[in-house]
Structures are given as C-alpha cells and as structure tokens.
Design brief:
By secondary structure, the protein is an all-alpha fold. The chain is built from eight helices and no strands.
C-alpha cells in the first residue's frame, strides 16, 4: 500500500476502533478548553497527532451535519408527497387535483435540488474573440433568411443612419 493511502479495514479493526475512541477523548478534552499540547502530554502522543485528529473532526463536522439535515429533509419531502397524493386522490374538482399535482412537482424539484441532481446552469463570460467565434458558429448553423423576411424585420425596427453620414 502506498504511503498516505489508508486501509479502510484498519479503521474497523480493534486497533482502529481504539484509535477512534482515543480521538474522541482528545476532541472532548479540546472542547473543554484543554490545549492540544497538554492533551498530547497526557496521552503520550505528539501535539501534531492531536492536532490532526481535531482538525479531521472539525472538517468532517459540517459534512456530517449536512448529511443528517439532508436525510431529515428527504423524509419530510416523502411524507409531504404522500399527503399530496392523498389530496389528489380525494380531490373533488379538477382545480384541487391540479393544486395537488403542482405541489407534487414542487416536491420533486426540491428533492432533486437537495440531492444535487439539478446542477445550476452557469453562463461563462466569453472574451471578445471567443464571442465572435461563438456568434460565427451560430450563424453558420442558422438557416438563410430570404430578402422578404429581412425587409419585414427592418420594417419593425428600421435602421436609421446618423445625420452626419447623410451628407
């Protein structure tokens, strides 16, 4: 195994579990305000080891909390979807059915967003050369316009020459 690569089985081994328990103790002591150097001295390890364990915990904390919140939200969406389905089945009018369907669509959209299925579409600003190239490519794909269509377009918004050019 390459250096820096962790063996996932080692994390669940008796030694790996003992290390995790030790790290929990270090984190709890750090929460209580004990300095990393003091924790290291008490536990017979380096300050760097304590610092790494605490930093790893802190980095993973937001991800773990986000995952927990995501799971809770998905459960709520599932429950609301069931309620919307019941409302649809019990609806006495087309308007009520349409409202329930609208609610279900919104729930589906929220679920997709929560799961990251709907990646946000971002338009990248092009430099002038790339913009000209993109415009040229679009024009190359466009069907040719006949003169009659061009005259109709111009009639809608006639192009007027500045007075200085009329001379």
């Amino acid at each position: 195994m390459k250096p820096g690569k962790r063996n996932r089985q080692a994390e669940s081994s008796p030694r790996g579990l003992a290390n995790a328990e030790g790290h929990r103790e270090w984190i709890e002591l750090r929460r209580q305000g004990v300095l990393e150097s003091e924790i290291a001295k008490r536990q017979g390890v380096t300050q760097q080891a304590v610092s790494k364990a605490v930093l790893k915990y802190v980095r993973n904390l937001p991800a773990a909390e986000a995952e927990c919140l995501r799971t809770t939200q998905l459960e709520q969406i599932s429950s609301l979807r069931e309620m919307a389905l019941q409302a649809y089945e019990q609806a006495s009018s087309d308007e009520a059915r349409l409202g329930a369907l609208n609610t279900m669509v919104k729930l589906e959209e929220r679920e997709a967003k929560l799961l990251g299925l709907d990646a946000e579409y971002r338009v990248k600003r092009l430099n002038s050369r790339a913009a000209r190239l993109a415009a040229t490519q679009l024009l190359a794909r466009a069907e040719p316009l006949d003169m009659e269509v061009l005259k109709q377009i111009q009639a809608l918004d006639p192009i007027k020459k500045p007075a200085a050019l009329d001379r």
